[in-house]
């Protein structure tokens, strides 16, 4: 097995991306990191609006960079027949086409799945929508925090007011990972049966499916004689304050809880029947977590974590994002990578988490400037039209 095969499993795959914001962009960046040639089609002018959100330099934001590394950017005005024809030619040269436009948009442009796949049966076409292709909300715009509300995330955080956002673009990213897995499965199926296929997926369905295994566990068993425990949010024991910060812990067994009781100075709780056994603790978890959280042992985070580790209790200091690059475990497994970007200068980003053949994937290219590859891509199209 060659190094290229190990670290670039998608080498030779060509992906055309029509999208704005995170869902399709993050999915296709994973393909680019794994060796695929990803061409991002952007409108002239401002391009993908994500370029201008948050920390930014030279028309590239940190968010855009983190979702678009190793891609090529071409600007096409899909309001003109000439550029629609170019977009069609790009699609017909590709293995994968992905977009996150509302239902009907690509069909009206002549870039829909049926039209393209009739001419190129091996094409894998992935359409990401907010709410699906049918139904009363299908034509509505969808953004992460709105989807958090509709998919149930905001009511599963255990917030005293009943509603709280997960303060990251979780719905966008969940949908991106769902799309990446589905497209990879379709590529595998094409290797076996020789034809591509159309993939529909919505943010709504992706996010409900993501949340359901634990968030919907109390709604899964429908028989009338089910014994219900505490909501899973209660199992996220409240952080335990220390002399220099806070730790998170995940006590699961009696032995784990006894170690917790001892280290916070509440050894007497070991004899409380309602805190014995998983079934009892499940019923009283919110109460127990609050009791523990109200303690403040005269120990540092490091002392607390090491004391619990001696009893095999999972625990970690609550870190800030700024703490992570220098953390010994992150350094040991090579989580972060430093690079020089031709326009941004020094950048720091996260390396791809999957290791193929036991090796980290080779460093990938930078995020592109808007239309940076217009000349080379249009030259490739001209060459294709001559063959």
UniProtKB/TrEMBL annotation:
InterPro entries: CoA-transferase_III_domain, CoA-Trfase_fam_III, CoA-Trfase_III_dom3_sf, CoA-Trfase_III_dom_1_sf
A GO molecular-function annotation: transferase activity
Key words, A-Z: Transferase
SUPFAM superfamilies, alphabetized: CoA-transferase family III (CaiB/BaiF) (SSF89796)
Keyword RNA-binding included in the entry's annotation: no
This protein's name: CoA transferase
Protein species of origin: Parasphingorhabdus flavimaris
